[in-house]
Amino acid sequence: MAGIGPKRAAALEARGIATAGDLIFHLPARYQDWRERSSAEALRVGNIVVVEGELGKISERPMRGSRWRRLASGWLNVGGRQIRVVWFNLPAYMRGYLPGGERVLVRGRVAAATDDGIEIVQPELHRLSEGEPKGIRPVYRLPSIVGQRLFAGLVSRTLAEMDESIGGAIPDDIRGETLTIREALGYLHDPPADADFDALANGESRGHLALAFDELFAFELALSIERLRSARRAGIALDGSQSLSAKMLKELPFALTGSQSRAIDEITTDLARANQMNRMLMGDVGSGKTIVAFWAMIRAIECGHQAAMMAPTELLAEQHWRGFARMCGRLGVRHALLTGSVTGAARSQTLRGLASGEIGAVFGTHALIQDAVRMRGLALGVIDEQHRFGVFDRARMKALGPKANLLMMTATPIPRSLAMSLFANLDVSFLDELPAGRTPIATRIYTEDDLAQVHESLRAEIDGGGRAYYVVPFIDGDEDEAKSVAATAARLKKGALRDARIGAMHGRMSAAEKDRVMREFRDGALDLLVCTTVVEVGIDVPEATIIVVVAAERYGLAQLHQLRGRVGRGDKASRCCIVASGDADETALERLATMRECTTGAAVADADLRLRGPGDLLGARQTGALPLKFVHLIRDHRTIERARKLADDWLARDPSLASRESEGARAAVRKMLAYGFSLGDVG
User: Partners of 407 in the beta sheet?
Assistant: First the structure.
């Protein structure tokens, strides 16, 4: 491409821009509005303005303390009023460009000057001798060596060259007023003069929504096609005696909730069929998903087969293994644990037992899906916190038993209506009741000014024998030293909690390191765990009675609810301290305040849907495994429902997507299905 040499090409490729397709789908990160011009009298400190005037002579000098940084300043004559313009560290591309004596447009932020006047800081200039600027100018996130004008020119030429070949998934017959992909890209890269600037800036313009809806249509098509395929896929029918599973339920020391009983009935019906079960079990933290999963495992075993449960961490796998022994140990089922820590003779014995069928139930991590593992008769695979696993992990899990039924579990709160669209390729069971006797969690909202009070609460809980989580947003000080794991742990050790035993955990630690720290916390060797949200999926620590979440405005309500679920697992009253940053705005504080009233996952999910929109909820669940770039732009859940209906209607018209009109849909679905939708990746 013209203007792109090897260095620039390498820099763009590092940003994921390697092909013409990458180029045109690299959307502007933000926009500048050059259409409305302000008079000198209308300038107010803090506002971003566009001002027309005559630029006087500009002077430049090195900035004090840095020979490479240059300060430039001058005066802009606006209707007879002199307004200072200043550049701190003048951009290299502007050196020698500043057109003193010319009539220009200046765009920048108004700031208070030292002489009680005003000045425009770090402005951008446009020579009016070059004609009027674009009314709305796109700004891209680019490597420093690739200029904005150069990139915009490349995009414009590429769009023109690829014009006829840019297609979408939605057939023209049913597109209606939705822009085509070519039209949407043209709109976003070169917005018309009458475009709604706020809609562009917020990602809600016609162009943004057209891209998101086209992607969503392909997504729903893929889910519907996969659901039809799954319905025809042969499975292992589990329709034998229910003596063991009935005995298990009878011996439970508590009564099942109504939703647990309904889920068991739904799973019973699925397992009795000769087609594979693909069911998602959704339930709040503490709603009893694990008991339902244990029942399903016993059901497979009493029918003469095997069952496996895979968890994302060794500690969680070990917790399930111990829980199964406690709940089902009297049933005489041989069960085993298989993780990376199980080695030597114990590992060999477990592998032999699985291969021979002597071991009926196995609990483990990724170790379950290693090449050495063979299972004689796997009839049920259970995946806990399944969105933590990648596509190919789930594929290998199913490879242990090609006809095995699959039960996936998640505690991520998603509204029921939205889940039915997002999990259209799965059957979904909802656990929407909490077992009797669950300890309520008191939730309070604080600001950073209240941290001393929060730390007093921490000290009181720890002195009373409790344990505590302290969640911060950053691992190190690259973004905010004060809110990093290391700095926070050091500050607490020196200050308010100097007598407490404090540990740290974050996502850059190895799995073995994280397991070691969590084990120490679980076993009481640590009183306080300073961590990032990596603790969101953790183990039961009944002694944990308080959790503090700092900079809580950075997280969605659903994630805050899952963090809150780390406590309240014992018989002691528990609390959640949600701390907002000092610069959190009123809207963020109002959103956090809803956590006081929303005590269940269902209520939290509905609030999150109202405040953030369904696209953000879906986007937050994706970890890069799926080719979804634009769905997070969706704000209205009815758009998702409309996409699903449109997809179902088109499939009824062209079930095999064989027609010429389905060419774009066929290509988009092929790309989607290549990512393994049969594994329920949307969960």
Answer: 279, 382
CB 400 within 8 A of CB 373: yes
Distance CA 147, CA 155 (A): 12
Is-contact 238 305, C-beta < 8 A? yes
Cα gap 234→122, rounded to integer Å: 66
What tens digit of pLDDT does each residue of 610-624 get? 776 766 666 544 434
Give Cα separations from 171 to 116, 162, 631 (angstroms): 61, 19, 19
Element (H, E) at 563: helix 557-564
CA-nearest of 418, 13, 24 to 207 is 24
Helix or strand (DSSP H, E) at 363: strand 361-364
Q: How far is CA 548 from the centre of its chain?
A: 21
The CATH architecture assigned to 459-599 reads: 3-Layer(aba) Sandwich (3.40)
- The string of pLDDT tens digits covering residues 433-485 is 877 767 778 999 999 999 999 999 999 999 999 999 999 999 876 556 678 89
Angle between helix 511-522 and 314-328 (nearest 10): 50
Amino acid at 173: D
Q: Which two tokens stand for residue 521?
A: 């916390």
Give me 56's structure tokens. 């006087």
Neighbouring CB atoms inside 10 A of 291's CB total 22
Cβ neighbours around 666 below 10 Å, total: 19
* Structure-token match 């229910």, residue found: 242
| pLDDT tens for each residue of 208-256 | 999 999 999 998 898 888 788 777 888 899 998 899 999 999 998 889 9
Token pair listed for 103: 């009539």
Whether 459-599 and 243-272+288-410 are alike in CATH topology: the answer is yes
**Ranges of H-type helices in 38-192:** 148-161, 172-175, 181-189
Per-domain residue ranges of the chain? 6-155, 243-272+288-410, 459-599
pLDDT of residue 386: 62
Residue 154's contacts (CB-CB under 8 Å, 6 or more residues apart) are 1, 2, 3, 4, 23
pLDDT (mean) for 148-161? 93
- Name the residue type at position 642: R
How many CB atoms are closer than 10 A to CB 444?
Answer: 15
3 pLDDT more than 90:
no
Q: Domain 243-272+288-410: which topology?
A: Rossmann fold (3.40.50)
DSSP 248: H
Is 622 buried (19+), middle (13-18) or exposed (0-12) by CB count in 10 A? middle
Terminal Cα distance for the chain, rounded: 40
Distance CA(655)–CA(642), nearest Å, equals 19
Q: What class does CATH assign to 6-155?
A: mainly beta
